Amino acid sequence: MSGQKKGGDGRTAGGGGYSKRGKPRVGTGGFRRDRLEGKGPTPPASMRPGHPAQRAAAAAAKADRDGRPTGRGNERAGASRDRSDYSRENPGVRGSGEGPEMVAGRNSVVESLRAGIPAMALYVTGRAHEDERVAESVQLAAGAGIAVLESTVAELDRLTGGAIHQGVALRVRPYEYAHPEDLASERTGASVPLIVALDGVTDPRNLGAVIRSAAAFGATGVVVPSRRSAGVTAGAWKASAGALARLPVAQAVNLTRAIEGYKSLGFFVAGLDAEGRDELRGMSIADGPMVLVVGSEGRGLSRVVAGACDLLVRIPMASGNESLNAGIAASIALYEIAEVRARKS
Fold this sequence. Notes:
The chain is an alpha/beta fold. The chain is 35% helix and 15% strand.
C-alpha cells in the first residue's frame, strides 16, 4: 500500500496498536476505563425529565392530590403546555422558573426543604442515606408528601446536568405565574392596590427579598419581565422566607406594555431613580392605586420603562454613597408608602 511505511517485521507502521516506527504503543493500564462506562439503562418515559409522559404523570398526580377530575382531554392539554414550557427552558441555566428546577447538594437540598419550597421528588443514592443531612432531607420530604426516589449516581449526573450533587437532588415544582392583569384586581385586606414591578433585576435572591418586603407592607403582587429577569427559583423561594406562598408573582412579556395597561386602569406609576426629580417622602400618589417600579443595581431603570412612569422619585442618601440594591431600595420605598397610607387612612 502506497504512502504507508512498514516496520521490520512487516507490520504497518502507525496502524492498530503500533507507533509510526513499528513499536507497540504504550497502553493506559486501564486508568481510562471509566470513560467507557455507560450511564445505566434508559429509565422509563414516565421518569425522564421533560418527556411528555413524565409531565402528564406529574400533572395527574397533582390533580389527584388537589381532588380535581382528570380526563384524557385535560391531560393532553396539560402535556401540550408542559412541552411548550420545556422547550422554552434553557438547559444551560438551572432553574429558569419556566420548568422543573434541580437543586443539587446536601446543604442546598435540606435548606430548600426546610424553607418549604414546593417540590416534586427527592432523588437519593444508596450510600447518601448515611449522611445526617440527607437523612433529614428524606424525613422532611416524606412529611411534606414529596416522593422519595432511590437513584444511581449516573442518573443524578444526568438529571442535574453534571452538577456536584453529593448523592442527593431535589426536583422543584415549576412556579405558576399569574397574569399581570390579575394583580390589578387583587386585594390584600382593605388596602389600596399596590403593585411592585421589577425592571432588569436578575438575581433571584433580590427577587425573593422584594417579594418578602412586598408581602410585609401590604402589596398586591409583584410583576417581572419574562426575559432578562430573575424568575421564581429555589433561591427566590428561600430569600422570600415563605412570602411566595402568600403573594402572587406575574410575568409580563413586555413590562412597558403591562405598565401602560395598569395606567389605563387608573393606577399611578412611580419609578425609583437616583436622578429622580422628587424625593420619596414627598410622593403625592402613595395613597391611591399605584405601581412602584424598581430597577437593577447600577443600571437602574431602562429608558423606555422610565418614560412610562408618571414620576421618578429618589431615595435621599448622603453624598458619595453607592447605589442600593433592588431588595433594599424596594423595602425603603414600600415602608414609606405604607406610612403615607397609614396616616391618611
